[in-house]
Amino acid sequence: MVISLDQQLIKQIEDICVARGVRLTPQRKRVFELICASKKASSAYELLDELKLSEPQAKPPTVYRALDFLMEQGFIHRVESTNSFISCCSCNAHKHYSHLLICDRCANVIELQNDSLVALLEENAEKHQFQITNHVIESHGICATCSAEKTQ
Length: 152
Hints:
InterPro entries: FUR, Fur_C, WH-like_DNA-bd_sf, WH_DNA-bd_sf. The chain is of the alpha+beta class. It has six helices and five strands. It has a three-stranded mixed sheet, with no helix packed on it. Strands 1-2 form a two-stranded antiparallel sheet. α2 (26-36) packs across α3 (44-54) and α3 (44-54) crosses α4. The mean pLDDT is 88.
């Protein structure tokens, strides 16, 4: 697979890793590139299959360690409902919670950031004296492309 990935994005995460004093190993970088190369969320085993094309010795722990690192750094998001992964639209430029729109037909995922939605959730939690530690907001449905294909 030929990856046409914005090299500026790779440079951005490399710079963030240097600033944080963490190592972006070649395998971590490659897993990130594979995730970024698709609009669809990728499972760990799909990533492993792709990684094996360039690194035949790669094993599941290699991918899982890379995914853990990338999530810790805020470079990717886990799609909880499908146990898969997508790149973060801001690459942790700022701490945020995302709303994911997941197409059940083509599996494309769109990441949205809506501060008013998060504020409403926090306001509702506060009313009940509940402290939120994590948000997972995922909406499943059919994307515009798939809807258009259905009507044709």
